[in-house]
Specification:
The complex is a heterodimer of chains A (about 400) and B (about 180). Chain A is an alpha/beta fold and about 400 residues long. Chain A contains 13 helices and 18 strands. In chain A, β1 and β2 form a beta hairpin. Chain B has seven helices and one strand; from the N terminus they run αβαααααα. Classes of the chains: A alpha/beta (about 400), B mainly alpha (about 180). The interface between A and B is large, with 88 and 60 residues.
């Protein structure tokens, strides 16, 4: 089969690889009908997430049809079923899964030995990601083996397009969880940094959950126009002061809820000297992540507010004003998404027409065009926001 | 490297049979080569400054050569990074500095004039390569000059934003572990 394979920094190739095989009775094989490139794939593309290996298959947003099943699925999945594959692999039985904390499943990470050493305790296995999360082959491929497939799937009905359903795999529940973590009240201002795909989903989620005003922060006109279409007030941080505008919009009190949909690769700008320092430190391997957005959120957030972090961070950050956060009594909520905790509800909302997540797709291409699209997406060329690949 | 990594895959994991074209454009590959060249040259300048000044007939400039070595290493790392354009232009600036200093070696009596001349020709050649690569990398990674798309009609809400506002709040309760609000 063909698959998009990581060969090193900025080096993705559409390779011919052997087909995946059932390894465990709880496995299933999916014939992928649609998959997507995620913003967090770019962190891997840039080799900023440790423990990638040449030969790793990329992709954690995929859906398709079940073509082969292991003997231990207990009828929960059968050949021909149409499924979206959540990016977090989970067993459904461990203590964390029973609490709905699927992204920290205790059983699904097959490199628990490695993850225990780095994280203290292992988190769940993820598709198409670092070996710290199991190094499972990803879904930017013609076929995908799904471990723990009796739990790790979202059954979806026929009659709704792939484009409307695909993002149940990651960005829609990720944006939703980011908003839910804020416990949005009708009086709240929710400020969202980053208008990439997760930011766009977080904006729509905050609107659906009834925020008084949603403020979206970015510098790319095409992203800001999409954010505005979704009901957000926008701030272009290249032409306006984020802090002054947020103060103005909140009567000088700051937003109650702040969402970081940027993560470890915040924009580097001469106007923000800390971003230059972060880039230099990251290059010299003195810190893993560039936390400008976190610094700004902690500064601007209203005391006793909530900071929600769906953006991916990989390791150490420098000069995080934890004293400011402590004194302001801020609540931090973060983590990889507990995808299946939300997807039944979100699927219903798609079916009812409350939301159509396909609005975010700007490019649909063949799988073999994937390597080129990684570059186009990274360089923000051709007004690219979300790429869907058709194997 | 990939065949080596195939060895550590589990039995059912796909393994590479044949590799396809890379996402790395030619200019980025050249930037990488120049980055490694920069680091190698920088290390040489750091550890063999005296030999270099002797070969050029410019004794007493060891400190300057070592500082240029540090500059080369920094440019090298930058050229290997995602910000390769900055790395390549910093190499061009470094080349011009090198040329300015080498010109001094042609002034007055210098028994090593011919070595200096050869060095100037080599640095000038590398400067041309650096400029061409920096321009090519700039062009490959630039955002288009065309007007960015206007996605102002992509609401994501089939019934419009006004109808969507608060629609989920009617049927959704924040899970206990994610609540933030205190009772009023």
């Amino acid at each position: 089969m063909r698959a998009l394979v990581w060969h090193g920094k900025e080096d993705i190739r559409c390779d011919t690889v052997s087909d995946p095989e059932i390894e465990d009775p709880r496995d299933a094989i999916i014939k992928v009908t649609s998959c997507a490139i995620c913003g967090s794939d770019l962190h891997l593309f840039h080799n900023l997430v440790p423990a990638m290996m040449p030969g790793d298959i990329m992709g954690h947003e995929a859906m398709g049809e079940v073509v082969e099943t292991g003997s231990g699925l207990n009828g929960k999945l059968k050949k021909g079923d149409r499924v979206v594959v959540p990016f977090t692999i989970f067993c459904g039985e461990c203590e964390q899964c029973r609490r709905g904390n699927y992204s920290v499943c205790e059983k699904s990470n097959r490199r628990k030995d490695l993850a225990d050493k780095v994280f203290g305790h292992a988190t769940a296995g993820l598709f198409g990601y670092t070996h710290l999360t199991g190094g499972y082959p990803g879904g930017q491929a013609e076929y995908l083996r799904v471990p723990f497939a009796d739990a790790t799937h979202i059954k979806v009905p026929e009659g709704i397009s792939d484009e409307k359903l695909l993002f149940l795999s990651d960005i829609f529940p990720t944006g939703w969880q980011a908003a839910v973590q804020c416990d949005i009240q009708p009086t709240d201002t929710v400020a969202i940094w980053g208008c990439g795909p997760v930011g766009q989903m977080a904006i729509r989620s905050a609107i659906l959950l009834g925020a008084r005003q949603v403020v979206a922060i970015d510098c790319l006109p095409e992203r800001l126009s999409m954010a505005q279409a979704g009901g957000a007030i926008t701030i272009d941080f290249k032409t306006e002061s984020v802090i002054e505008r947020l103060d103005e919009l909140t009567g000088g009190k700051g937003p109650e809820k702040c969402i970081d949909a940027v993560g470890m690769e915040s924009h580097v700008s001469m106007a923000q000297p800390d971003t230059i320092m972060d880039r230099a430190m990251q290059m010299m391997m003195m810190e893993n992540d560039r936390p400008h957005v976190l610094r700004e959120m902690i500064y601007v957030c209203r005391p006793a507010g909530v900071i929600s972090i769906p953006g991916v961070y990989s390791g150490l950050v420098d000069k995080l004003p934890i004293g400011m956060a402590m004194n302001k009594g801020l609540t931090f909520r973060m983590g990889q998404t507990h995808v299946n905790r939300w997807t039944d509800d979100l699927l219903r909302r798609i079916e009812e027409g409350q939301i159509d997540p396909s609005f975010v797709i700007t490019h649909t291409v063949r799988l073999e065009d994937g390597p080129e699209m990684y570059r186009v997406f990274r360089d923000k060329q051709d007004s690219c926001i979300k790429v869907v690949l058709k194997p | 490297m990939t065949s080596l990594s195939n060895l550590v895959r589990s039995k059912g994991d796909p393994k590479i049979i044949r590799s396809g074209p890379s996402s790395l454009p030619a200019s980025d590959r050249m930037a990488r080569n120049l980055g490694w060249f920069s680091i190698a040259l920088g290390v040489t300048e750091l550890v063999a400054a005296a030999s270099i000044t002797r070969a050029l007939g410019m004794p007493g400039r060891e400190g300057l050569v070592r500082s240029f070595g540090l500059r080369e290493i920094a440019s090298g790392f930058l050229s290997l990074s995602v910000d390769k354009k900055a790395g390549l232009w910093s190499r061009v600036a470094g080349d011009l500095l090198d040329l300015a200093v080498l010109r001094e070696g042609l002034r007055g009596f210098n028994p090593r004039r011919s070595t200096v001349s050869t060095a100037i020709i080599m640095v000038a050649g590398i400067t041309v390569i650096d400029i061409l690569t920096a321009k090519a990398a700039g062009a490959v990674h630039a955002r288009s000059d065309l007007k960015p798309a206007d996605y102002g009609r992509r609401t994501g809400f089939p019934s419009g934003v006004t109808a969507a506002r608060g629609r989920a709040a009617e049927s959704f309760t924040t899970p206990r572990d994610m609540r933030a609000e205190l009772p009023r």
